[in-house]
Queue: 3 jobs
Job 1
Amino acid sequence: MTEIPFSKLHGLANDFIVIDAREVTESLPQLAGAICARSTGVGADGLVAVLPPKSKRHDARFRFFNADGSEAEMSGNGIRCAAAFLAARTGTRKPLQIETAAGLKTIHILKSAAAKWLFRVSMGKPILATKKIPFKGEALQPVVGFPLRTQRGVLLATVTSMGNPHCTIMVGDHTAIDWARLGQEIENSELFPNRTNVEFVKVISRDEIVVRFWERGVGETMSSGTGSCAAVVACILNRLTVRKVRVQTPGGQLEVSWPAGKEVTLTGPAEDIMQGTYYYRG
């Protein structure tokens, strides 16, 4: 048995366990599957392992794991939770330079009080090239209005990447479709070699959308940072919204901005809710 100190945080009810992984010798994918289990572990949508950066110019390196133990390239909510974990321990208020599998990310601390934080994350430019997403469907780039065949008919999809793959579907009413079952089917479509995250988007106005999320390796979640970014990118590519959008999720509101020719930015909260020790039995 190994004792592993942890913190649990959430970004709009998308919850993560964060650990200092410098002295963890166990397999991180196996640990993620065990500690994220809702009944037999601590329970969370994902695990974030905080590690020393590869470059001394940066503050840390984050690795993201889904609840099923698979590793994700990036997590918009997870990176805010881990940033709160790091800032609370170092006392820093300067912008954080964080290495991820999706590249270097800059995180600005906008507010902090009583274990609650507000961050703005520079998420990078969206990836629209099919080979880099990756996406195997034959389509023009960017992939907008792709006729995606499902067991429930053909759906028009916008396919992008925020460092991790996303498939965005526009809907008129979330209650009129079984979007969770569709999400599970699309996640595992052969068109996505690395599987995909799926967003179902209802446009409310030119600057507001409502989104439901099916996350790769997790399932239905109350919120998603990269999913919100991908949803806004898809809306802009489809000329449905302006470039700064309020994203309403079941867990609360995020703000996403994509200025022409620049990076996507994500603004949202993180809250520290628990600290403890997990007894890992391997």
Job 2
Amino acid sequence: MKNRFLLTAFLLAIGANAFAQAPAAPAGGRGAARVTRPALFFKEEWKQTEKGGEHPIVFDSTLSNPSLELKVYGPSSKELLLTGDAGNELNPIHVWTGMCTTPCAVAFKHKTAYADLSGLARLRWNTKVSGFHQIRPIVKLADGTWLVGDHTDGTVRDWLFTEFSFGDVRWMKLDINRAVTTGTILDKVDLSKVDEIGFVDLMPGSGHGQGGWVDVAQVEVYGGSVPRTGSSASQ
């Protein structure tokens, strides 16, 4: 009986000592800051002309989001086409690379803010492809560096919404004028201040028919917002 009493007293003493040495809870009873997903940075669904049908991109009226500027890149980027119909899930309004005879890229630039694509930032888009073509994300950093990611999307059978985290993507430098990769996979990339965000088709298009091309409809980017200041806002 005595031994049991001594053992109980010993255990109580250990517990009291551990409690005394435990770190105090933060003021207000709150623990570590909660990691949350970033808000929507921009969304683009494209805008069809009054005539409709398939036609070259009309820069002053193609975008539905007035906060964005549309940029196109690649030697044959003038051959990028807009087609599709609003409300048609089998043929939504989208950009099509089928007539590009070289790799082509499309990017969006927010007029008043850079994007912070660090942390849990992600991209969601509605895409479809033909042949062996794939859609890859591209970004232009605030210092002018262009990068292309190893993540690919696009299914042949149907339009599908897919999304990915920017933090899971490995990046390589991109020669934006030719829309081709250069160098090797980069060890580390800082995406906390991104000037433009878009996509690239690294293969020439095959024209009409089921040959090879990519379609990109709705695009949503979730990330932080970093205000543009001074002259950088108009660059």
Job 3
Amino acid sequence: MGAAALWAGAPSRALLRSLATLRWVAVACQAATIYLVTGPMHVALAPVPLWWGVAALAAFNLYATWRGTRPREATQVEVIAHLAVDVVVLTWMIGFSGGIENPFSSLFLLPIAISILALPATGRWITAALAIAGYGLSAAFAQPLPHVHNMLGDTFNLHMAGMLVNFLVSAAVILVFLTRVATAWRRREREVAGLRERFARNEGIVALATHAASVAHELNTPLGTLTLMLDDLADEAGEQREDFATMRALVAQCRDRVRELALPADVDAGVDDRAQLEQIIERWQLVRPTIELRRAGSATGRERVDAAAGHLLLALLNNAADAGEANTSRVVELRLDVDGDALAGSIRDHGRGFDAAVSALPGTLFRTSKPGGLGIGLALSHATVERLGGTLAMQPAAEGAGVIVSFVLPGTVST
């Protein structure tokens, strides 16, 4: 990723703010240098033009500081204009203080270095041309640096001292600026990596949804036929009538779930896809009758929740039940609380837990550590929570074995 991309959009204002900060440092250093050189060191330079240069840079930086707080994004032309002002003022200051004999003349390299990090190729060449022109003008029309005899010795000793200060100032400026750019670059790289992973996962979810719709279309007819067959068998059965009734209820639930796959396409038509919490939990207990569900929390069960929230709850309950059964435990603890229109919950299993070295919330599909698992439960749950603008977290249980999955889903509850 190019450095110019780091300052696209909102970071362009960050670049203006960084330049304004560096410019205030330059104003302070220039003022201190002029005072020391023309005062205690008694160097015969014309102080008035130098102070005018400092005043002009400070006045421009007042505007630049204000501009950095505005919401309007900075264009590349505007950034080049700010750098051009710096070059013009530096040309003025160097020209009235010895030209290329001035040990600070190498400061013309700083705008070029900043442009390399912050501008595209055209902006870099323009800034470089301005800096070269400024350097040439300051050399051609410079006021000569007078010979000096003072506490530092002769002019050459003063020049070496100036070169040392120039190096320290240049190193500090580049270090600060590069640190900010590197921080922005690392942050953007993390964002891009997260977006790539999310894009890959969402592509898999779309493919999975397409396949699920096709399978649902194929299963609807045989499930309806199977329901009618179980009705006939239940009428003819004797002692097994209750078993056939349970089987019919399970098949009816499967058929209802298959039909629900078409609900998202009908939301705009006014279809209410919300369900009561109690109905969702009862539906899960019908499928997992051997699991003991221990409930807590302020939710009464009469609240109606978004279909996506119901799917998430079922997926997390199934994961918890599977984890517990793999560790010879048939207990799942569920806590649901309602705060306004937000549903907050936690589900604890009594399984073996998870490996701390492995991501507890996978961002990709079809990756699982559960024997016989499909590798889609937690990834789909994570995607659902992101779509609803909520949060999902997983942590080891404080006491004993197991894992606690906590979630908060805003805007999903209605009474």
